[in-house]
Here is the input.
Amino acid sequence: MTLKNAREDGLRHTASIESWVVSAGRDRRPGSPLNVPPWPASNFVLGDGRAYSRDDGTPGWEALEELVGGLEGGTAVAFASGMAGIAAIFDQLPTGAIVALPDDCYQGAAGLASAGERRGRWSVQRIAVTDTARWLEACATADLIWLESPSNPLLTVADVDVICAAPRKPGAILAVDNTFATPLNQRPLALGADVAVQSVTKFIGGHSDLLAGVVTAREASVAAQLRMSRELTGATPGTLEAFLAVRGARTLALRLERAQHSAMTLAERLAGHPHVSVVRYPGLPSHPTYDAARRQLRGFGSVISFDARGGAASADAVCTGLRLIQHATSLGAVESTIERRASVPGQEHLPPSLLRLSVGIEAVGDLWADLDQALLTMLEATT
Ligand SMILES: *Cc1c(COP(=O)(O)O)cnc(C)c1O
Here is the structure.
């Protein structure tokens, strides 16, 4: 069974990404289930090209790859997690490579880069997200240019369009971690990036019930190398996870639209709250990279970070005082989640009272009432 024809059909008949997330990754032959069911298979009867799932994939993984690949606009390879996909990109690097990494980025990517540097595999240059001049220099000299925009957790927007268009050292890879924007708000491959990374665990899965990742490459040859890394390192997606990820992705456009609309409202209200000192949201005109966000993002996303007045203890009190919003680390799901990021080991460099809020799809009035009561209670508890 192959979904390749389904992809061509789908692309031909689908004008918009809102329809693509619903229609992609289906087997359209008469009598097939509308959704590709979970494929619990490692071993296949020989003779039809598919022998062993780690090498040859399964229709379940292919459904997810077709869906995300169509969104990002390239050839997708599904992995066990976002980090497995990131590791496959680093796996392409020759010994002694130069890696350019943002000063603010996902801690897992930064941790992987510094672990490899300690072992003598490559050297890492950290560059400020907004220092476009230095990024352009890095394009000419680095073997891996790693962008993440909006960044985690400061939500700084890089000049992705300018950096992706710059000439690169031959053989270099320019990767964009597109998890926070999702391919609905930003399409790095169309801007000239080589690969785009999704932690499917977050917005695409959307229900805090799976780990998965997808890397999409502009060139099929790069996707083939990533597939080879997946095969050799065994970082394959789970059967149930791939199924749940496609199921979650069906509502991605609806969920994101609602969540980012609510995020804008909450960011504006938080900015006027007497117990909040700083609000970082790419859609607020006060945000330092608002112009870049307006230029590059179709929507501003649903993650906000803000500082509670009164330091770490006050911020902790906000987290534990919330009733509707979950005190939890991850993001991009139907339920709103909040975390004081500097409480996470390795993140102590962040402002101590920075709270990262991932806005879900609950009623915005209820979310605001919850934040407001927790901020007021916090002040009473800590003064
Ligand atoms: C969560 C996350 C990852 C890692 O994804 P996992 O699925 O947890 O391995 C990578 N990048 C960003 C921006 C993330 O938020």
